Structures are given as C-alpha cells and as structure tokens.
Amino acid sequence: MILSPPIDNQTSSFADPTFLRQQAQVLIDFYLPRSLDREDGGFIAQIADDGTIFDRQTRHLVGTCRYTNSFALGDRYHLGAGCREAAEHGLTFLREAHRDPVHGGY
To answer: What CA–CA distance (Å, rounded) separates 41 from 93?
Structure first.
C-alpha cells in the first residue's frame, strides 16, 4: 500500500492548503485506528507501509508525542471522528506510562 499518490512537483505545492489537507487526511486514514493499542496503552509505531505491524511492544516517548500531536491536529482540522479520542488516549499514556513519578519528568 502506498500512503499517498506520487507527488508531481510540477502540479503539487507544499504551500497549497488543499494539497496539505489531502496528505494529512491520507495519513490519518492510514494510522487511525490501527496505531491505537487499546490493550497495552499508547500507540503502535512500528507499522510497515502495507499496514503490517512488526513490533507491538516498543513504546517511545517521541513516538507517543508525535501521534498525540498529529491526532490532536486531526481533531482540530476535522480529519477524522476518532482523532480526539486518539489524542486523549495519547495524553493518558504520556501521564501514566512515560512520566517519571519520582522526578516528575519524562
């Protein structure tokens, strides 16, 4: 599976809001809901281009932050009904799993 059609630099512009929205929508459609791990929490970040999950266990702070931010933006720009829930899912995992309760950092 290819995430998005090939980009034609002659007709596509990364400054074009319509083009950017289409790209963002393709990414949200690909990662939501397959990236949410409802059993262990957080997000599954190790997903191949064809949608195959090749590591269900590894969790990285940066990955959790990226998914959380992306889904929050997806909610803000109305890119998917589940974006808000996914962003809240990420915030919960950041607080409960990534946060160091002894020192208060991440």
So the answer is: 6
Amino acid at 12: S
Are 13 and 22 spatial neighbours (Cβ–Cβ below 8 Å)? no
Residue type, 46: Q
Neighbours of 83 (CB within 10 A): 20
Across 3-16, average pLDDT: 67
Distance (Å) of CA 33 to CA 14, 61, 73: 26, 19, 15
Element (H, E) at 53: strand 53-55
Q: What is the pLDDT of residues 55-77, one digit of tens each?
A: 999 999 999 999 999 999 999 99
Cβ atoms of 35 and 44 within 8 Å: the answer is yes
Q: What is the pLDDT of residue 13?
A: 82
